Structure formats: structure tokens, C-alpha cells
Automatic annotation (TrEMBL):
HAMAP family: NDH1_NuoN_1 (MF_00445)
Alphabetically ordered keywords of this record: Cell membrane, Membrane, NAD, Quinone, Translocase, Transmembrane, Transmembrane helix, Transport, Ubiquinone
Reactions catalysed according to its record: a quinone + NADH + 5 H(+)(in) = a quinol + NAD(+) + 4 H(+)(out)
Gene Ontology biological-process entries: ATP synthesis coupled electron transport
Source species of the chain: Pseudoalteromonas denitrificans DSM 6059
Signal sequence segment: none
Transmembrane region(s): 6-23, 30-48, 68-86, 98-115, 121-140, 152-174, 194-214, 226-247, 259-283, 290-310, 326-345, 365-388, 400-427, 448-470
Self-association state and partner proteins as the record states: NDH-1 is composed of 14 different subunits. Subunits NuoA, H, J, K, L, M, N constitute the membrane sector of the complex.
Gene label: nuoN
EC number: 7.1.1.-
Lipid bilayer topology: Multi-pass membrane protein
Domain NADH:quinone oxidoreductase/Mrp antiporter transmembrane, first and last residues per copy: 115-412
Superkingdom in the source lineage: Bacteria
Record's protein name: NADH-quinone oxidoreductase subunit N
Amino acid sequence: MSFYYIPSFILVLGSLMILIQLCFKRRHSFAYLTSGLSLLAALFLQLYLQKNESLIEPLFTFNAQTSFISLLLFMIIGLIWSQIYHWLETLSEQKEEYYLLFLLTALGGVIMVSSNHFASFFMGLELMSLSFIGLIAYCGHDQKAQEAGIKYLILSAIASAFILMGTAILYLQFGSLSFSNLMQTPSIQVLPQWTIVCAIIFIFTGLFFKLSLVPCHLWIADLFEGAPLVTTALLATLSKLAAFIVLWRLMNLGQWQQYQIIIDIIVITSIASMFVGNVLALFQKNLLRLVAYSSIAHFGYLLIVLLLINNDKVLFSTQSFNTQTLLFYLVAYLFTLVGVFSILIQLPKVKMLDDLNGLFWHKPFIAITLILLMLSLAGIPLTLGFMAKFYLVMAAISQQLWLLLAALVLGSTVGLFYYLKVILAMVKRPKNDIAFNNLLSDGNNLSLNILILFLVIGFGIFPTSLSQFIQQIAN
């Protein structure tokens, strides 16, 4: 057995230990520590494996890029995990099962980002999706959470059905479920060309749902608002990271850009997601719905990366630079988003923009942290988000994607307005301080806020070390 599988087996072992504990005695602290130690061990082992040589197997691909993405995934999950204990203590629900589902969701994401075969991809996808159903509907007394869980169950099943249908058609034509063997010219043309295009569109539809891209975005705001906050953070980061990496790998290995209609679909979806996401976020008064629509726009920006793969119109960039763009943007956006959710978890009474009124005067450090995170999401200079946008703009210019570049600039300009709305709400004089009475703030949360600020602002001002590290991975 390869060492590359050990981080996943550690997560399996942690899940089994929690299951065994549930058979004898429920103990919240044991489940918390077991899940945390499992994630920590997996993270350090993944860091060690970063320097190992590449390994390609029938079901999985392990190289520097997949190792880095897995490492990023473990870091994000670890930051979210650090918020769980105090949040669960405020609930009347049984607590241990949440950690079990949490680890299984992480395991599904790790499987997806390393998958090189539709069988392994679908196994990871369903493990993650089924775990998310339980995590979303975990608060049994919350009607919104139950509705969100049912909605995710139905729509996730429909998305999986689309992916399965597309996979079946591709298998009928090419006789293989391996990503590496996609689109290889078969000895006999079993199906007409238009059916292959339909199969790709089916798979795109399923993955666009997971990424909440237009027009598969209608579920995202209701789920962000209805699901528990920690689950929402996991859904916005882990689920989307895993789904986008699979989409990127399929485009890389499948050579799907040879079909002009596929390119057109990506361009239209990207522009529509930028426009719809930013415009809808502009009119939101609910913070979680604002973040939900903002995420649609950000992954609309990121779709530009798919159009950089094997593009003939290259001015000065290379494929390695395009990979750097993808990895840098994912690092910047996901860490910033985890920071935003960390602040919202510490403010359980804050639901609407008006609830933030006076936060700067009551809790200045938390307010300053949230302000800087919002500036990073907006792409303001001296933040990590600005460097991510800079990479994306340079890559788009190098491939002469002028229409998408114009949409990116216009969408970012619109986005600046609703991020400023959040900032202005915090500096207003408060009518009352009820929203800040039940602040879930302690030394652990303070340390987490400082760490996230260091990542977002530190690498924004001094991005060289992160850029060089990602450059080595991309090469």
C-alpha cells in the first residue's frame, strides 16, 4: 500500500473510534479530540508526502499538485474544526455524531481531489454528499435546517443522476472510466459526436450544481441561511474545492476544450455567474445570503481558469502559470471565506446586516478582522484577495480573454459595493448591543482570528514566499 493512502486511512480510523465510543458511552470531549487528532495527523503526514514522487494508479493520481490541494483541504477543515466544540455546546442535540459526519465529509473531499477515475470520484462525491445531508439537517428543532436538508437531498440526487448519465454515455463510447483515457479515439465510433457533447454537458450540469454556478444556483442561498453555521462553512469551502478540482482535472485530461460548444457554455456560465452573483448579493440584507451569492460570483471568476487549458492564444503565460493562478486563487478565497465564517460563528445573534451595527465600538478587534476579510474578498490591494485577482487578470490577458476580463472587472466593481455595505454597518452607532451579548469568544477564537489575519494580510503584503511555493508545485 502506498504512503499516499495513509491520510485517508487515518480519517477512517478516527471515524471508527468515534463509532466504537458511541457503542459504550457518549462523551463530547472524546469525539472532539479524536476528530482533531485524526485531522492533525493527516495534515502533518500530507505535509510530509508533499515532497514524494508522483504516483499514478488506476483510481487515483498522487503528485505535488494533488498533495498540495489535499493539504489545503486539511488546513481548511482544521480551521473549521476548531470552531465546533463551543458551538455544539450551545445546542441541545446529541453532539458526537456531528464529528463522525464531519470526518466522513472530509474523507469524501480527499478522495475526490485525488481521483483519476469516475468510480473513485463518484464514491467520494456520494460519501461527501450523504454526510452533508446529515450535517445540514443536524439541528432537529430548526425547521429551516430540516427544509435545507431535504432540499439538498433532492437536488444533490438529481445532480448525481446527471453525472451518472454522462458517465454511462462516455463509457459506452470509450470503454473506460479513467480520466486519463477520456476522449481517446476508439477503434469503432459507437455513438454520434453529439451524444458525446451531451454526456459532457450532463457532467457539467452536475458539477455546476455542486459549485452553485448559474443556472444551478437557486438552492445555495436557502442552504446557507438554513444550515448550521459550521456546516455552511464546510459546504462553502470543502464541497466547492473538491468539485472544482474534479472539473479542472476533467478539462485537463479529457481535452473537452476541443468542442466549441463546451467553451461557449463555460464562457456564458462564467459571465452569468459573475453578473447574477454580484447583483443578487448587492440587494441582500441577510449576511449569509450575501455570502452565498458572493460565492457564486467568485467561482464564476475561477471558471476563467478552465479556458486557459491548452489555449492557443498564449502571449506570455504557460500551463504552469495557469495552474499557479488556480492554486493561488483557491488559497486566497478559501482562507478568507473560512475567516468570515469564523467571525460569524463567534456572533451567533448576528443574522442581518443591521445586526452588525456598532460591532466596531463593542468588539473592535473582531470588527477590524471582518473588515480586512471583506476587503480581501473585494480584491483591495495589500490583501491576499488582491493578489489572487491579479493572478487571474494576468492569466486572462495572456490568453486574450477580453470579454471575460471585462466581466471580471465589472463584477469586482459591483462586488465592492456590497462588501462596503458590511463594513459601513459595523462602524455605525448601535441602537442596542443585544447581538453582542452572547459572543462566543475565547482565547481559541482570538488565536484563530490572528492566524487568519496573518495569512490574509501577511501574504497579501508579502506574497513572494507563497507564490514561489505554489510555483514549485505547478512546475
